[in-house]
Amino acid sequence: MSELDANLVREKIRAYITRELIRDPDYDLDDDEGVITEGLMDSFALADFAVFVEQEFGVYIPDPDLTVDKMDTLSQMVARVMRG
Amino acid sequence: MGLGLETILVFVVFALLYAGLARGRARNWLLFAASVVAVYWLQPWLPIRYADFLLPTFTLLLTAGGWWLTRRPDPARPWRLEREDWLALAALVGLIFLLGMNRFLAPDWRLTPSRPPAPGLILAVLALTGLILAAITPLLVGARRWWALTGGILAIVGVFVVMKTPGLAQPLAAWWRSHTGQNVAIASPADLGWLGFSYVSFRIIHTLRDRQTGLLPDLSLQEYVAYVVFFPAFIAGPIDRAERFQKDWRALPGLRGLDAARLSQGGARILTGMFKKFVIADTLAMGMALTPELAQQSHNSLALWALLYGYAFRLYFDFAGYTDIAIGVALLLGVRLPENFQRPYLKTNITTFWQSWHITLSDWARFYIFSPLSRTLLRRKPRPSQKLIIFLGLMATMLTIGLWHGVAWSFVIWGGWHGLGLFIHKVWSDRTRKWYRGLKDHPHQKRAWTLLAWFITFQFVVLGWVWFLLPDPALAARTFLRLFGVGG
Predict the structure, then answer these.
(1) Nearest CA to B439 among B431, B448, B427, B428?
(2) Separation between Cα atoms, residue B65 and residue A20, nearest integer Å
(3) Kind and range of the H or E element at B358?
(4) ipTM beyond 0.95?
(5) Record: contact B437-A44, CB cut-off 8 A
(6) Which residues contact B99 (CB under 8 A, 6 or more apart)?
(7) Is B405 annotated as catalytic?
(8) Helix-helix angle B144-164:B51-70, to 10 degrees
(9) Cβ A63–B214 below 8 Å, yes or no?
(10) What is residue B309's DSSP assignment?
(11) Which chain A positions have a beta carbon within 8 Å of B210's beta carbon?
(12) B77: which strand partners?
């Protein structure tokens, strides 16, 4: 996964979350904002996120990693994708 | 669940002796041995001859089988074991055999619930398990491994279904009775009251599945067995996760034995649990909580509501009390089990209720049912509608949670009730999310809305218990209607 550029991953995930999950493309999502704990989306959307990551970056995130604790912020999501 | 005062006292005395006397790696071995012995000691007596010895033995052999399937062997020598695993295997087999020797003790001195079978039978069961595990070993390397793990999961699910389905457990009990020369006509599913199996099976499935996805860390046999049958959590959970348990387990040798802060925290937790269980729950159980008998007799709607609230609180305090005791005893031993309840009856929607009621079971179902099923559907082309995916995922999850309690229509309806509730809440919250977030600028309105949301959520959960507690769906339906003054 060393070919993945963290900044590119971050921007792609940010765009996906605001467009597809929050459904407000103009929303200014911070890196450390709690997308689930702040009520922007619900935890059901983590399955959508995981499939997006699989298809976009070829990274499989095991289901027990799809929790609010581990995937609440953009920074957490990017770090998990970069881990491969 | 049979966690009485005597059992708690034995747990606490053992934990204090362990904290005061055991040092270093001896702590792990002592807890391993205690947990193996507890599998037999906690098992209630069963009417079928030897069942209360053989079922605990099957628990341990299934656990050993789970470990065998999840270990990562050297492909060239898949049979080769590490020295510590040999030791754990010898300890496990030796303990099972030694417990079998209780056959020769007077009933008052036995650690087993009744007289164990002859040593020859125990040896035959152990040898047969060894042969089965040896036979499947070639499947544990390379691409076949995935199928071996899937086979393991299906086998556990199969046993689970048989044990939890009265229509299947009854013939099995009759078959078993026919081999022990006992009266077949009175065979009943209760003959197979296999203590701890529900929790054990879900823990093993978690390790098998996590090995498939590469998430499971390598566990020694000692760690694996201790995780699956850890005695404080053996009767009523929590389910925990292997990687979390392993961290605590490996830290045990370095812990301070008589750590005043840890011991007082554990002690306080046990006392809190005992108060919830023996004072609140047991008091409510004395005629203040709905039972099938009371549901038959009560025709007054107000009285039924009062009894139903009584049941809701009895159930919560009973289960949360057990959990507090388990967490407290584990703390005395140096293991921090996960929380299982976080004020579930104060939640303001059904989704957060399920994130705070029997949390470790809900998490398990989310990780191994909801999430994989949703992802499979999301990958399909053309992709089904979002609502359909959520509906199917929630229903499958909640029906499984229902059936985990027993394969019966009452639990199917209860699971479906919550699956539907979660789905309705999901659709509702999707539509109102923006509006709700805007409420933060209107604190009075938000407070009123929160109160209403709590009230609706609580009534929904309480009404769901009608299906859960009454095994006869017809009586449950009548009771449900009577609560609203219909049917008299």
Answers:
(1) B448
(2) 44
(3) none
(4) no
(5) no
(6) B37, B40, B53, B111, B112, B116
(7) yes
(8) 160
(9) no
(10) H
(11) 62, 64
(12) B74
Closest CA to B334 of B263, B272, B229: B263
d(CA B47, CA B448) in angstroms, rounded, equals 56
Those residues with Cβ within 8 angstroms of residue A76's Cβ, 6 or more apart along the chain or in another chain: A70
Q: How far apart are the first and last CA of chain B?
A: 35
Q: CA gyration radius for chain A? A: 12
Q: For residue range B18-56, what is the model confidence (pLDDT) as tens digits?
A: 999 999 999 999 999 999 999 999 999 999 999 999 999
B164: tokens are 């939890």
- Taking contacts as CB-CB distances below 8 angstroms, the residues of chain B near A72 are none
Residue B478, pLDDT > 80, answer yes
Residue in B179, B299, B358, B405 annotated catalytic:
B405
Residue B85: CA count within 13 A, CB half-sphere: 15
Token reading at B68: 């065998």
Tell me, yes or no, if A37 comes closer than 8 A to chain B by beta carbon. no
What residues does B74 pair with on adjacent strands?
A: B77
C-alpha–C-alpha distance, residues A29 and B55, integer Å: 55
How many residues make up chain A in this entry? Answer: 84
Contact B372 A62 (CB under 8 A): no
Query: pLDDT for A28-38, tens place per residue?
Result: 999 999 999 88
Chain A residues in contact with B363 (beta carbon < 8 A): 64, 67
Distance, in angstroms, between A57 CA and closest chain B CA?
15
Model confidence band, residue B483 (pLDDT cutoffs 50, 70, 90): very high
Out of A39, A55, A66, the one facing B437 most closely (by C-beta) is A39
